[in-house]
């Protein structure tokens, strides 16, 4: 649960993900290096087996789910999901519960069995050693508690010695070189103007709360106050007196508020991808931030000064430079001390881990119980060595049959999307031709990478959990830096195989479907077409449509950031997307309206994806009798499974966070938002004109 800024700018891919699930990041802290020998790159050699009887059951659609006392044409999501939602409570260690999280629970259960087996391997090598070392040390609660704050004492001593701006700037550079940059994100990403080549990107960061509005909006004053109390408590746990901790906490919150005012909000970042791209020379960057030398920063990272790099959100970096010059070093020390301890807390003794949960889990998101240690350790492995673990996961949890069926579905969805583009009435033939050119370069990735990452050089051992975390953090950072200035490796993935999600990466024009999502209710190779097209088919369509949402459409066939639209078509597109913004602005969670602008990209993808999946189902079913399974038509089952995918409930606190920061609309509105715009839905359920689930005339939205 570290608050460290993202090291690698996969923000674009994640913002175009199906659910955008966040991952915990490695801590921004250091410790003594492990004395173990480097891990070899050998693949997993041991045979592992699953006990299926110990895995959670799938949550698939069943006709008994339907609440026949309700009307499908009035509130479709409730019609399909209300009985299930009423009968199922959110587990104490979760902040939401539904189709995605249940499948995630199953993935975690698979990983649990694997981790225990891996840790028991004698004389392990390669990825088995990495996973086994993390598991064994992470589960050694007694040793972790005995170490207390010891693993980061050297870091805190280094911070305490900072007396002036030059020393602070040097600390920021040198700590970043170990993958411990608490202030801003830095790493490789494809050049917006030449997507085949990686360049360095520096982004904003440095905040402990989810969004800038937590610092600037009076409505969030209670959360800001609770955060300040958390900062004070963390500092007290590190040895500060209550009085001194309170003073430092006030300084930290004031400092972060200053950074927040110079930063962009979640809404701004999600709806203007150009904010990430601000190419400058190192010399010009130095002029922009006179108190923070980028020349020295690149040198400290071991990177030759590039011809250009992207200094994203320059106002943020300018404010950091100003703060180096006008802020008392004691405030900087308080800030760096807190961020270091807070980032390390999940991997330290129970007192620190519990305080971390009390604020970020309980206060901020309404989570009732801390996850058991085994789940937290698996989360750490996922964050720090997830792809290594993925090699083990796919051997026991993903079948060749599933991959083959998925490849067929992708082809069918692609064909239907092409026909929909060709049939558009609001777009000119000239722009259509360019849209088709982009369609022709879509690259699908299914299940797991064709080429696994090399983990040789990562040093892990059985002495220190935090030492393993720190070692992986530095290893991953250096791996990322090695990409800068080199061609993009198009075989790489931005998610691990065990992730229950999918994404579209506009810079590579690729759609990616990890193995873990290819299970019910999304996908079942043994299920009928209606369910698969309403589940994973709509997910495939969703990710493809991201290539044409309000931000994905700003990238061309090769992934370059370019305008391939005519002025008239841009105007038409803006008018259509504006209608979708208005539709979702009209939905409310309690008294709080959904932010139609923040969620626009995902809503475009849902609408286009569901329509495309429906068309593909009709083509796949052409000439076949409707099987009328359980008395339900093929089309009805298609829409029922779409709604089943979105059966989710949230804690009130988590719902509030999502409404401010999540580019995805609440699940209940995703279940009904897209279908209400499709005449095929109204026909399937014989909905009368004027029904809430029938949007007609100017209210109906048809984009892709």
TrEMBL record:
Pfam families, A to Z: Peptidase_M13, Peptidase_M13_N
Keyword Protease: yes
Domain Peptidase M13 N-terminal: 73-449
All residue ranges annotated as the Peptidase M13 C-terminal domain in the record: 501-700
Cofactor requirements of the protein: Zn(2+)
The keyword Zinc appears for this protein: yes
Keywords for the protein's UniProt record, in alphabetical order: Hydrolase, Metal-binding, Metalloprotease, Protease, Signal, Zinc
Signal peptide: 1-16
Family: Belongs to the peptidase M13 family.
PANTHER family per UniProt: FI17812P1-RELATED, ZINC METALLOPROTEASE FAMILY M13 NEPRILYSIN-RELATED
Name of protein: Peptidase
Organism: Stenotrophomonas aracearum
High-level lineage: Bacteria, Pseudomonadati, Pseudomonadota, Gammaproteobacteria, Lysobacterales
